[in-house]
Amino acid sequence: MTDAAELPAFARLEDEIGWYDRKSRYSQQTFKILKLWTIVIAALVPLLTTFGIHDARVLASLTASIAVVEAVQQLNQYQTNWILYRSTCEALKHEKYLYLSTAGPYSTASDRKVLLAERVEGLVSQEHAKWTSNREEKGEGAK
Question: Are 31 and 79 in contact (CB under 8 A)?
Fold first, then answer.
Protein backbone atom coordinates (compact mmCIF):
# COMPACT_ATOMS: atom_id res chain seq x y z
CA MET A 1 0.00 0.00 0.00
CA THR A 2 1.24 3.49 -0.89
CA ASP A 3 1.87 5.87 1.98
CA ALA A 4 -1.32 7.98 2.18
CA ALA A 5 0.64 11.23 2.56
CA GLU A 6 2.11 10.71 -0.92
CA LEU A 7 -1.27 10.61 -2.67
CA PRO A 8 -2.46 13.81 -4.39
CA ALA A 9 -6.03 13.14 -3.23
CA PHE A 10 -4.87 12.71 0.36
CA ALA A 11 -2.84 15.93 0.20
CA ARG A 12 -5.93 17.71 -1.14
CA LEU A 13 -7.97 16.18 1.67
CA GLU A 14 -5.53 17.45 4.30
CA ASP A 15 -5.48 20.94 2.72
CA GLU A 16 -9.27 21.10 2.64
CA ILE A 17 -9.60 19.93 6.24
CA GLY A 18 -7.20 22.67 7.31
CA TRP A 19 -8.97 25.34 5.24
CA TYR A 20 -12.46 24.44 6.47
CA ASP A 21 -11.25 24.18 10.07
CA ARG A 22 -9.64 27.65 9.94
CA LYS A 23 -12.63 29.25 8.21
CA SER A 24 -15.06 27.61 10.62
CA ARG A 25 -13.15 28.87 13.67
CA TYR A 26 -12.88 32.37 12.19
CA SER A 27 -16.59 32.49 11.36
CA GLN A 28 -17.53 31.18 14.80
CA GLN A 29 -15.32 33.69 16.62
CA THR A 30 -16.49 36.60 14.46
CA PHE A 31 -20.15 35.64 14.88
CA LYS A 32 -19.81 35.38 18.67
CA ILE A 33 -17.94 38.69 18.95
CA LEU A 34 -20.58 40.50 16.88
CA LYS A 35 -23.42 38.91 18.85
CA LEU A 36 -21.76 39.74 22.16
CA TRP A 37 -21.39 43.36 21.06
CA THR A 38 -25.07 43.52 20.14
CA ILE A 39 -26.18 41.99 23.44
CA VAL A 40 -23.95 44.15 25.62
CA ILE A 41 -24.83 47.43 23.88
CA ALA A 42 -28.54 46.58 23.76
CA ALA A 43 -28.45 46.03 27.52
CA LEU A 44 -26.21 49.05 28.18
CA VAL A 45 -28.36 51.73 26.49
CA PRO A 46 -31.36 51.41 28.86
CA LEU A 47 -29.01 51.20 31.84
CA LEU A 48 -27.24 54.40 30.83
CA THR A 49 -30.59 56.14 30.42
CA THR A 50 -31.81 54.84 33.78
CA PHE A 51 -28.70 56.08 35.54
CA GLY A 52 -28.99 59.57 34.10
CA ILE A 53 -26.83 59.53 30.98
CA HIS A 54 -29.02 61.26 28.46
CA ASP A 55 -26.41 62.49 25.99
CA ALA A 56 -28.23 61.89 22.72
CA ARG A 57 -24.98 61.56 20.74
CA VAL A 58 -23.69 58.78 23.00
CA LEU A 59 -26.98 56.88 23.04
CA ALA A 60 -27.51 57.32 19.30
CA SER A 61 -23.97 56.15 18.54
CA LEU A 62 -24.36 53.05 20.68
CA THR A 63 -27.75 52.24 19.20
CA ALA A 64 -26.48 52.82 15.67
CA SER A 65 -23.56 50.47 16.33
CA ILE A 66 -26.08 47.68 16.95
CA ALA A 67 -27.60 48.26 13.52
CA VAL A 68 -24.17 48.30 11.87
CA VAL A 69 -22.99 45.14 13.62
CA GLU A 70 -26.20 43.29 12.71
CA ALA A 71 -25.92 44.47 9.10
CA VAL A 72 -22.33 43.18 8.91
CA GLN A 73 -23.46 39.84 10.35
CA GLN A 74 -26.29 39.57 7.82
CA LEU A 75 -24.06 40.59 4.95
CA ASN A 76 -21.26 38.14 5.76
CA GLN A 77 -23.37 35.31 7.21
CA TYR A 78 -20.82 34.31 9.84
CA GLN A 79 -23.15 31.93 11.67
CA THR A 80 -24.22 30.14 8.49
CA ASN A 81 -20.63 29.90 7.26
CA TRP A 82 -19.48 28.60 10.65
CA ILE A 83 -22.02 25.76 10.50
CA LEU A 84 -21.43 24.94 6.81
CA TYR A 85 -17.66 24.98 7.14
CA ARG A 86 -17.67 22.92 10.35
CA SER A 87 -20.01 20.37 8.79
CA THR A 88 -17.80 20.03 5.70
CA CYS A 89 -14.64 19.81 7.82
CA GLU A 90 -16.11 17.00 9.91
CA ALA A 91 -17.31 15.14 6.79
CA LEU A 92 -13.81 15.40 5.32
CA LYS A 93 -12.29 14.10 8.56
CA HIS A 94 -14.74 11.20 8.42
CA GLU A 95 -13.54 10.37 4.89
CA LYS A 96 -9.94 10.54 6.03
CA TYR A 97 -10.45 8.04 8.83
CA LEU A 98 -12.52 5.70 6.67
CA TYR A 99 -9.77 5.76 4.05
CA LEU A 100 -6.95 5.23 6.53
CA SER A 101 -8.85 2.36 8.17
CA THR A 102 -9.88 0.79 4.86
CA ALA A 103 -13.43 0.91 6.18
CA GLY A 104 -16.83 1.73 4.73
CA PRO A 105 -16.76 2.15 0.97
CA TYR A 106 -12.96 1.83 0.98
CA SER A 107 -13.09 -1.77 2.23
CA THR A 108 -14.40 -3.07 -1.09
CA ALA A 109 -13.18 -0.41 -3.53
CA SER A 110 -11.17 -1.65 -6.49
CA ASP A 111 -9.14 1.58 -6.39
CA ARG A 112 -9.21 3.32 -3.01
CA LYS A 113 -7.20 6.32 -4.29
CA VAL A 114 -9.72 7.08 -7.04
CA LEU A 115 -12.63 6.65 -4.64
CA LEU A 116 -10.98 9.01 -2.14
CA ALA A 117 -10.46 11.66 -4.83
CA GLU A 118 -14.08 11.37 -6.01
CA ARG A 119 -15.56 11.52 -2.53
CA VAL A 120 -13.39 14.44 -1.37
CA GLU A 121 -14.24 16.45 -4.48
CA GLY A 122 -17.91 15.54 -4.02
CA LEU A 123 -17.92 16.87 -0.45
CA VAL A 124 -16.16 20.09 -1.44
CA SER A 125 -18.55 20.57 -4.38
CA GLN A 126 -21.58 20.01 -2.13
CA GLU A 127 -20.37 22.64 0.31
CA HIS A 128 -19.76 25.11 -2.49
CA ALA A 129 -23.25 24.47 -3.86
CA LYS A 130 -24.77 25.06 -0.40
CA TRP A 131 -22.75 28.26 0.02
CA THR A 132 -23.82 29.53 -3.41
CA SER A 133 -27.46 28.60 -2.79
CA ASN A 134 -27.41 30.41 0.54
CA ARG A 135 -26.00 33.54 -1.09
CA GLU A 136 -28.60 33.43 -3.86
CA GLU A 137 -31.39 33.03 -1.29
CA LYS A 138 -30.07 36.15 0.44
CA GLY A 139 -30.06 37.99 -2.90
CA GLU A 140 -26.29 38.36 -3.00
CA GLY A 141 -25.36 36.08 -5.88
CA ALA A 142 -22.18 34.03 -5.82
CA LYS A 143 -19.37 36.45 -5.10
Answer: yes
pLDDT tens-place string over residues 1-11: 456 666 899 99
Prediction pTM value: 0.83
Report d(CA 86, CA 15) in Å as an integer: 15
CA angle 85/86/88 to nearest 5° reads 65
Buried b or exposed e, range 71-82, using 16+ CB within 10 angstroms: eebeeebbbbbb
Nearest-10 Cα torsion for 96, 101, 106, 110: 120
17 CB-side CA count, 13 A: 15
Q: Give the three-class secondary structure for 3.
A: coil
Instruction: Check whether 124 has a pLDDT greater than 80.
Output: yes
CA-closest candidate to residue 119, choices 86, 82, 91:
91
